[in-house]
Amino acid sequence: MHGPASPGWLLVALCAATGAYCLLRMRSTVEEQRRAAGGEAVMGFGMGAMAVPTAVFTPPAWAWPAYAVVFGTAALHSLWLARRRPHHLHHLVGASAMVYMAAVMAASPGPRHHVHGGSGVPLLTGALLLYFVGYVLLSGVRLVPAVAATAGGGAVGWGDRPELARACRLSMGIATVAMLLTL
To answer: Would you give the distance in Å from CA 141 to the centre of its chain?
Structure first.
């Protein structure tokens, strides 16, 4: 994404760490955790790859359409899963936001220019920002009781810790807000 290198690398690290933990969650004994973890790992690693600062690495022209295809496939998968499990609608919005950002970056004239110029925030970017800011705030509020409730519990494997899964989703939401702000 366009923007300064230091925050970009922090975003890459956050997304990569989230993706790595999601891979660890795929070893969970809880079936629902395993199902969600794979898609979330793809999102985390994909977001990390998209966030690499362009001052360090300028992706080839084919990279942004490739990101759009990967995230578009994830969006279609989420849409399919949402038929039976409505919580996948959030994954659909997240993957669609990444498709949108990849399309904006593909249309961008260069690493130092903004697509939207001085015309203000486009409606879709603003709507996505509102959604993800709301999601981050709500996720943060939901995370506090989960941490307090599991603090006194028995031994639970790293892949089965609901508060860590929520923290990963929260961090991906924060990363999405940061990426949308750089458009």
So the answer is: 19
Question: Is pLDDT of 68 > 50?
Answer: yes
Alpha helices in 4-30 (DSSP H): 5-25
Q: What's the pLDDT score for residue 113?
A: 41
Give how far Cα 172 sits from Cα of 12, 55, 103, Å.
11, 23, 19
Sign of CA dihedral 117, 118, 122, 126: positive
CB atoms within 10 A of CB 23: 16
Over the stretch 106-156, which tens digit does the pLDDT of each residue have?
888 665 444 444 556 789 999 999 999 999 999 988 887 655 555 555 556
Question: Where are the chain's structural domains?
Answer: 5-109+120-181
Please identify which residue in the block is written with the tokens 């989960």.
Answer: 146
Contact 58/82 with Cβ under 8 angstroms? no
Dihedral sign (CA 161, 164, 166, 168): negative
Q: At what angle do helices 162-181 and 123-150 cross, to 10 degrees?
A: 160
CA angle 20, 13, 109 (to 5 degrees): 120
